[in-house]
Amino acid sequence: MRKVEWTGDDGRRHVSSVRNGDPDAIAPMGISLDPPDVINGLDWDAIKVALHNELLDRGLVCWDDVQARQGGLTAAVKGALLRPLRDLYRERGDK
Questions:
Q1: Mutual orientation of helices 44-57 and 72-92 as an angle, nearest 10°?
Q2: pTM here?
Q3: Which end of the chain has fewer CB atoms at under 10 Å, N or C?
C-alpha cells in the first residue's frame, strides 16, 4: 500500500491509501487517511461568540491594540477554537 495526495473539487486536499500497482487517479476511491470531518461538526455561531469575547477580554478592539499585543490574535483564536475542535476529536473516539 502507498499514500497518494489529491485535491477534491471543493479544493480540499486529501490523502488516501491505494495498492502499490494502482494509478494515482484511483486515490478518491482508496482508503481515506484524512482527519475526521470536524469542520462541519463545529458550532460556528458559538465559536463566533467565543472569539468576540476573547478579543474583548484581551483588549483587541483596534489595529493599534493588535500591534501592541503581539500574539494576542493567535491566543484569542486558540481560546475560541481549540476546545470545541479537541472535543469533536474526543467524541469521535478513534485511536
A1: 150
A2: 0.75
A3: C
